[in-house]
Design the sequence.
């Protein structure tokens, strides 16, 4: 099976039980080995006391893109370290796109950079994640 088709299969399996990503309203745009691109629309219940999206929303979206990118080789990987920079505020009805790009794919760790843009293609957040790779598989090959 083509490695990118298999990567898509792995992410589809992940999404079956990823209730939080479903609650966020995440839609998969593109999956390739070591890469993911997803989108979601910010809803009213995601806003904080300042009338902008809670930072956890952008973080969670980036974390999902990170998970889809670092796990799609079918090697269960978990976050070891993450960080995010919030660049612009996010508002209700904003359509966000998170793109996860693999920077390093090691035997036991991986490094990913995730950019989040809005519907105007403005960068609103930048996330960096390091994962630890286990020996467990997510789907039968």
Sequence:
């Amino acid at each position: 099976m083509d490695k990118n088709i298999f990567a898509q299969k792995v992410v589809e399996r992940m999404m079956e039980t990823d209730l939080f990503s479903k609650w966020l309203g995440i839609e998969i745009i593109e999956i390739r080995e070591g890469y993911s691109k997803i989108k979601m629309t910010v809803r009213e219940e995601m806003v904080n006391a300042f009338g902008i999206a809670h930072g956890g929303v952008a973080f969670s979206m980036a974390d999902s893109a990170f998970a889809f990118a670092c796990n799609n080789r079918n090697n269960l990987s978990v976050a070891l370290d993450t960080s995010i920079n919030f660049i612009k505020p996010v508002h209700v009805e904003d359509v966000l796109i998170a793109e996860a790009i693999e920077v390093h794919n090691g035997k036991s760790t991986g490094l990913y950079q995730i950019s989040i843009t809005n519907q105007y293609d403005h960068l609103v957040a930048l996330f960096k994640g390091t994962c630890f790779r286990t020996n467990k598989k997510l789907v039968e090959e």
